[in-house]
């Protein structure tokens, strides 16, 4: 997946959306489990995940959030995640930009689902 495919019309290509849906469905929870304690935006990240998985979420919104979630999952980064303190700064910035673009579509039900998932000591394996 190329980095330039995270923005613009290319991000809404049905093949790319399908590829990202598969990636997020398979890799989101395992990745989150590894890093949740080190990132301050976990709640927003999980709410975005539940918004993407909601069948009522418009495709344009899904495409935007999938780009942010895929960026979080992918091993490449502008700032490598293994760097203490700043490693997830770019992931957070990408997520916050995506969330601000689609804020009206992150519903209370998505935030409740995120809070419930994060309060579970055995965070879910899949949505």
Name some characteristics of this structure.
mainly alpha; 5 helices; globular; UCP031804; transmembrane helix; DUF1232
Describe this structure in words.
The chain is an all-alpha fold and about 130 residues long. It has one domain (about 5-120). The chain is built from five helices and no strands. Helix 1 crosses helix 3, helix 2 crosses helix 5 and helix 3 (about 60-75) runs antiparallel to helix 4 (about 90-100). Mean pLDDT is about 80; it is low at about 1-5.
The share of residues in helices is 55-70%
- Distance N to C terminus: 23 Å
Estimate the global geometry from the Cα principal axes.
Answer: globular
Residue-averaged pLDDT: 79
Topology, number of strands: 0
- Rg, nearest Å: 14 Å
The main sheet comes to: none
Uncertain spans:
1-7
Supply the number of helical segments: 5
Structural classification: mainly alpha
State the order of secondary-structure elements, H for helix, E for strand.
HHHHH
Number of domains: 1
**Strand portion, in percent?**
under 5%
């Amino acid at each position: 997946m190329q980095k330039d495919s995270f923005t613009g019309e290319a991000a809404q290509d049905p093949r790319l959306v399908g590829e990202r849906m598969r990636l997020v469905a398979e890799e989101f929870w395992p990745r989150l489990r590894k890093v949740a304690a080190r990132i301050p935006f976990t709640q927003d990240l999980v709410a975005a995940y539940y918004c993407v998985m909601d069948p009522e979420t418009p495709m344009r919104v899904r495409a935007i959030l999938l780009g942010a979630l895929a960026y979080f999952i992918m091993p490449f980064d502008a700032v490598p995640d293994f760097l203490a303190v700043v490693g997830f700064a770019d992931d957070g910035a990408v997520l916050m930009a995506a969330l601000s673009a689609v804020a009206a579509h992150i519903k209370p039900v998505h935030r409740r689902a995120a809070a419930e998932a994060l309060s579970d000591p055995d965070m879910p394996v899949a949505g």
